[in-house]
Amino acid sequence: MRIRVQYRKFIRPSASPQARLKTIKLSLIDQQVQPVYVPILLYYKAPESSTSVSDCKDETREKLINLLEGSLSQALSLFYPLAGRFGEDGLSIDCNDRGVEYLVAQVDGLLSQMVEHGKQSADVHPELLNALVPAGPDVADHSGPLARIQVNTFECGGLVLAIQVAHKLADAFSIIAFVLGWATACRVGTLAEVTSPAYELLSPPSMEPRANLPQLKEPSRPPMGSGLVTRRFVFDQKAIMRLKNLVSSEKNRGASKVGIAMAAIWRSLIDVWRSEHRYTRPSMVIFPVNMRGKSSCCLQVPGNLCRNFLHLAFTVCYKPPEDVNCCVLDDLLNAINDAKAGAVKAFEKQISGMDLITGGINLEGEVDTVVMTSWCNFRIYEADFGWGKPEWVSSVRKRTPGVILMDSKCGEGVEAWVGLSGEAMLLFQNQPHILLSTC
């Protein structure tokens, strides 16, 4: 498919309420996340006349784009930090209304070809998906926009919204809150039904940003073979139930779909790593935990907080090198659940000043590591701009090894976007838990 960017502009907030913040100070949490753009793609069929957009069959492409632009400008009146820039000190956001980067592109092809292929196959041509995302650096620097959006229109009238937001400003919860707010403004025509976000975090001194703080680095390991491959594996509702039937404890049979998928992927990666090293090494899974509603500390956190509010959980599986049957699903589920509980306790210690971070975490050594991130249960499939809910929501090709978990459209399954080297991917996709549980 040929993709042609037709124009690029910056969309600014339509209004600037006096009560809003002029500057947002980054927190210690913001400092520790990677300075990258986080992408998400939403796929929509051509509007139909039965939807709230009038006479959709006759709706011109320009009118549809103008509708998106106007509602985006409205939404930015509430989500105004997205239109700002990093401060010169690198420790703050200057809410200066310089705007969100906005591109419009024409795709020669049919949306149905991409969506149906994506739903039915693990091979979703991630290079093509990446072409739908605004071109530019992966890292959000001090001069660049904090959000970039590309509206991709297809010959059939369908479109794909590709949205990127700087991780230093927002976590998955916050990004999806923005998308839902924009969609509501577009569908309703006003901000009356949009939930206003909160950006002020009344944090104790222990959470204040610090100059020259070493950043927590995602674990890296030399890729097995050359070239990184991204594939999508779908754990549908039946697959989740099959995996639950493999666990022995009653408690773990009630595990969440995310926990079950994480355990199955981790178990499969252990076998991949064993094939690489010829013996079993300790393996570590690192995953962010959303702290909203989980911490019992005195930190004042509004439910509509649209900033990073997470803590990294670390869990390691130690088994003897000769143990080829190590780590059954029960072991891994227990480790994941313990890590979640441990992350909450560590977070409470950190904000109380009892456990201050003074440097990065060193993950070098004989430990295999993988980062897993979950976007599940954040209601992204409710993003209706006025012509229906998305047919599909996807990630893009991963640039570093790791796993992203997303809801399937029905809400009961999990789509796992896995990035591995080519040789490792061949081993991974043929692991028993993957063959048994995915399509």
UniProtKB/TrEMBL annotation:
Pfam families per record: Transferase
Source taxon at top rank: Eukaryota
Annotated GO MF terms: acyltransferase activity
Entries under InterPro entries matching the protein: CAT-like_dom_sf (IPR023213)
Keywords annotated in UniProt: Acyltransferase, Transferase
Family: Belongs to the plant acyltransferase family.
Designated name of the protein: Uncharacterized protein
Naturally occurring in which organism (per UniProt): Kalanchoe fedtschenkoi
